[in-house]
Amino acid sequence: MNTQRKWVVILCWLTVVFEGFDLVALGASIPTLLDTKHAGIDPAGATFVATISLVGVGIGAALIGPISDRFGRRLPLIVCVLLFSVFTLLFPLMPNVAMMGVLRLVAGLGLGGCMPVAVTSMQESAAGDGKAHSSTLTMTGYHIGAVAASLIALLVGRQWEWLFYAGGILGLLAVPLMWAKLPETSPVAEAHKSMGAAPKVRLGDLLRGSYLRITLGLWVAAFMGLLLVYGLNTWLPQLMRGAGYNVADSLVLLLILNVGAIGGLLAGGRIADRRGVKGTTMFWFGAAAALLAVLSIKMENQLVLNSAVFVTGFFVFCAQVLVYGFVGYLYPRHIVASGMGFVSAVGRLGAITGPWITGLLVVAGIAYPFSFYVFAAAALLGVAAVAVVPKAGRATAQEISTEARKPTADV
Question: Model pTM?
Answer without folding.
Answer: 0.73
